Amino acid sequence: MPRKPLVTTAALVLVAAFLVLFVGGGSRFAVGLTFKTMVDDLGWNRSDLGLAVALFQVVSAFALFTAGYLTDIAGPRRVLCGGLLVSGIGIGLMSVVAAPWHALLLYGVVFAVGNGMASMVPVGVVVTRAFPQRTGIANAVVMSGMSVGQLVMIAVLAAVMLTVGWRSVYIWLGAANLVLLPLLIFAIPKSTQAQSKAAQPAEGLNLSEAACTRQFWLLLVIYAICGFDDFFVSTHVVAFAQDRGVDAFLAGNLLALMGLTGLIGIIAAGIASDRSGPVWPTALAFAARVAVFALIMVDQSPLSVAVFALVFGLTFMVTAPLTVVFVKESFGTRHLGTLSGLVTMVHHVFGGLGAYLGAAVFDANGSYNAAFVLMGVVSLVAVGLTAMLRAYKPASSLA
What we know:
The protein has 17 helices and no strands. The chain is mostly helical. It is globular and about 55 Å long. Helix 13 packs antiparallel against helix 14 (302-316). It has a single domain (10-387), classed as MFS general substrate transporter like domains (Growth Hormone, Chain: A, Up-down Bundle), CATH 1.20.1250.
């Protein structure tokens, strides 16, 4: 009788995918950690770096869609490896920026392309195909890599920044992306274009067919609002906490702790989606956001800032593992990469708008108050739109 392998291919895929998002999450959120220190050191306005973050969101959004399309054609291995290589170069060179256009090019374009390719879209596709029966929880475990990366890497990098400066943060991040390449090549099976097409199911809606449904447009608006909230908070929460009197080291670790609460939220959402579908976890996440935006509008004491950050963190990654679940249950898996890539692209484009708007509001008014009001209102709208989504039922006819 042949022995069972100690580590299955599916398990290797799970580990490799987790680590890709672990490093990618830590890399992406590092700009929030360094935001105030960088602009103060370089003599920039907050909107100078905020524009680079906004450009990152837009460019990475289109890279996400492209990654999904390429994954459907050629498989995830090449997409993820190419993305890690470009990410490592882009984020590493952020250590030498001296002018706003450097950040626009390196963070807003080069790193954005790499991070968008080595992202949750190809990861979601490979994990969904490796775990067809427990899609929600498998994707939640993998997507939690972003939260754990935010928790662990930001906490470590906060100490690095205080010890040797913000430039060293980006050197370490560049190395972390490049070190993952050999593991990824080993863990994810190579697939040719023919194999990838053969592995695809025969049925499922394509982009033009999905666009004829109300479900599709509701999802796009909901994910747009989600991204608008997400990247406003992740980009500005450290600077906001420091503005309200929180020590720089504690403020950086507040962003890291958001990763811990995000881990709880993402696992809970994955379990709930396997049981009853993705609608209610999404609606509850937006309801929690309405509550904390209301809190921070009326009380901005250090305690309220901490409560705001940690509760928002609980909702931060909830929709990430649910993207492929929404797409799978609504439209089938034939074009899973393309459709989930489009939804995630919309999330990131509006995330860029939220990040830049926060900086512009602060530069104009000296506070984030107007932005908090806007975020609370759109989150309330998202609660209602989520309730309008089609109720969960297995899409066996689309599988």
